[in-house]
Structures are given as C-alpha cells and as structure tokens.
Amino acid sequence: MVAVLYKWMLITYFAAMHPFYVSVIDLHHNAKEKMVEVSIRIFTDDLEQILKIHFNKNVDLTHPVNKAEADDLIQQYINNKINIKINQTKAHLKYIGYEIQKESVWGYFEIDNITSIQKIDITSTLLYDYQPNQVNIYHVTYNGEDKSYKLDNPQSTVSFTF
Question: Measured at the alpha carbon of residue 108, what is the angle toward residues 139 and 56, in degrees to the nearest 5?
Fold first, then answer.
C-alpha cells in the first residue's frame, strides 16, 4: 500500500513540476462588420522569451518601456508564424493590439472584407521553435457554428469547412 501511495505521489510531483505549453487562437466571423476577428492567447513569459529569441531584445509586455516597439515585435512574430487562407485566398492579419490578462497576453487581429466563409486553411508554427511540446488550440466560429482543433508540435496545418 505504501509503495502504491509513493508511486502516486511521485507521479503527481512530476506532473506539477512539468509545465504545459498551450496557446489558444480564436477566429470569429463578424457578419455585420464583414470581417474575421482573431484573438490569440499566449502565456506572457513564453511570448516574451520567443520575442527575445527572434529579435534579440528583452521585452517586458506587462510594463513595456516602448509600447509601440512591443506592438511591432508581436505583430511581426505572429504574422511570421500564422498564415491563414479564407476561401483559397491568403488573408492579411491586421494587428489591432494586445492586452495582459492575468498570466496571459491576448493579441488581437482582424481580417477585413470577409462576407462568407466556405473554408479556412491555417498553417501555424506558433511557439514551435520555443517549445517542442507546444500545443495550439484553434476555435473557429462562423454563422453560429463552432469548430475546434488541436495542433501538437510539429503538426502545423488545419482546415475548417463550413
């Protein structure tokens, strides 16, 4: 009995000590505005570290010394790592800004001039070059229908059809 208890305590200890790496990407079609609103949630420390790796700059997103520079680095990184096609046409992610919520950064983007969606193709390597265990979860909402998919590194493509 003691051996079983010890085994479970050891498993619990290692599970608690091993962090998880997950980001959430939401795409929501706003029919009234004819756009897709994109929200990307990344743990703040993970995003700060990947920006440091990519741009060789220390960035404090919670208290940035230069907010415009932080915005620019986030925009460049996300646009380099996530590519979206809507109805076979490459979409341009227009950066809106970011905000800190607890331990996460929410980055906001828009894709303009989208009246209807038949298919969304996403190619993403978001944070794959930072963590080999990275998981990215995609939620897409169109015309009241919600679809989700989980990409585990190195998996990098997903398609949603409506």
Answer: 110
Among 97, 126, 125, 127, smallest CA distance to 110 is for 97
**Entry pTM:** 0.86
pLDDT of residue 21: 85
Question: Rounded to an integer, what distance in angstroms lies between the CA atom of residue 83 and that of residue 79?
Answer: 7
Higher pLDDT pick, 6 / 109: 109
What are the domain boundaries of the chain?
20-161
The candidate with the shortest Cα–Cα distance to 120, out of 145, 97, 98, is: 145
Q: Which ranges constitute the DSSP H helices of 18-160?
A: 44-55, 67-81
For residue 67, the one-letter residue type is: K
pLDDT digits (tens, 9 = 90+) for 123-140: 999 999 999 999 999 999
Q: Which helix (H) or strand (E) holds 41?
A: strand 35-43
Bond prior to 154 in cis (omega within 30° of 0)? yes
